[in-house]
């Protein structure tokens, strides 16, 4: 998110020097000695250039491997990118909305659909492997007293990450804000035990649905009135779709592992 230093594959070690013959086939037992040493010389195969300056912790991030996205933090072996969220399963109304807004934004903006839909409750933080089990237990302890609740989606809004490397179109939360805020406060306590950063001080809870590279807030904000008009129309047409979430559990994504934290 790693190879080891290469060792020489061939090394000739010497013994006593002798020109005497031994029984059986004639075999030379001569060894080459350094002129200024009583030890045999060591002849090593050259180390391939791709390994000669390689460190096992070296890692080069290539944005081309993940659609131009840039890491917010350096990769380090043993570190697990982690966050806690509320997941959402896409329905036909949301898919139609995504298709519509791609036709509205300027052609030079390459808008991409988000890989998974969720409402973030923490920033993406780094957990050491040995922290995973106690951190999961801590989160469960902090949120076990919360009851299940409802979230309703409102209008579309434009967001940009802190590094200004990506801009998002999201759907903000219309109701359920107070419950989310109380959960975040408790999650912040759990994060503080590991000296990890808390969530944003004045959070704008939302679900990101599409993104593009760079800071495109100005261009996308110009499109917002038309985007929200389409969203309202789709909500009326697809009124059977769930434009809300009945929150029964939180989802923790820690590296390639997932944990569910159930509410009561």
From TrEMBL:
The keyword Ribosomal protein does not apply. One of its GO terms (cellular component) is nucleus. It catalyses: a 3'-end uridylyl-uridine-RNA = a 3'-end 2',3'-cyclophospho-uridine-RNA + uridine. Transmembrane segments: none annotated. Residues 1-58 are annotated as: Disordered. It is an enzyme of class 3 (hydrolase). Keywords: Hydrolase, Lyase, Nuclease, Nucleus. Residues 13-22 have a biased composition (Acidic residues). It is found in: Nucleus. Its EC number is 3.1.4.-. GO terms for biological process: U6 snRNA 3'-end processing. InterPro entries: Usb1. GO terms for molecular function: lyase activity; poly(U)-specific exoribonuclease activity, producing 3' uridine cyclic phosphate ends. The active site is at 118 (proton donor/acceptor), 206 (proton donor/acceptor). Pfam families: HVSL. Belongs to the 2H phosphoesterase superfamily. USB1 family. Phosphodiesterase responsible for the U6 snRNA 3' end processing. Acts as an exoribonuclease (RNase) responsible for trimming the poly(U) tract of the last nucleotides in the pre-U6 snRNA molecule, leading to the formation of mature U6 snRNA. This is U6 snRNA phosphodiesterase. It comes from Sitophilus oryzae.
């Amino acid at each position: 998110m790693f190879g080891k230093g290469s060792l020489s594959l061939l090394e000739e070690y010497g013994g006593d020097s002798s020109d005497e013959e031994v029984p059986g086939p004639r075999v030379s037992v001569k060894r080459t000695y350094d002129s200024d040493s009583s030890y045999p010389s060591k002849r090593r195969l050259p180390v391939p250039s791709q390994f000669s300056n390689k460190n096992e912790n070296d890692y080069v991030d290539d944005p081309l491997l993940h659609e131009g996205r840039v890491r917010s933090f350096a990769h380090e072996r043993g570190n697990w990118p982690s966050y806690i969220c509320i997941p959402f399963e896409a329905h036909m109304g949301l898919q139609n909305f995504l298709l519509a807004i791609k036709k509205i934004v300027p052609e030079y903006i390459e808008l991409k659909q988000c890989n998974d839909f969720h409402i973030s409750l923490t920033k993406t933080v780094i957990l050491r492997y040995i922290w995973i089990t106690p951190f999961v237990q801590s989160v469960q302890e902090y949120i076990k007293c919360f009851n299940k609740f409802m979230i309703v989606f409102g209008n579309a809004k434009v967001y940009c990450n802190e590094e200004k490397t990506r801009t998002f179109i999201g759907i903000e939360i219309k109701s359920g804000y107070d419950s989310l805020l109380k959960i975040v406060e408790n999650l912040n306590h759990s994060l503080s035990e590991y000296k990890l950063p808390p969530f944003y001080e004045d959070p704008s809870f939302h679900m990101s649905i599409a993104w593009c590279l760079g800071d495109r807030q100005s261009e996308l904000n110009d499109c917002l009135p038309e985007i929200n008009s389409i969203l309202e129309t789709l909500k009326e047409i697809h009124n059977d779709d769930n434009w809300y979430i009945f929150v029964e559990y939180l989802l923790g994504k820690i590296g390639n592992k997932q944990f569910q934290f159930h509410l009561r």
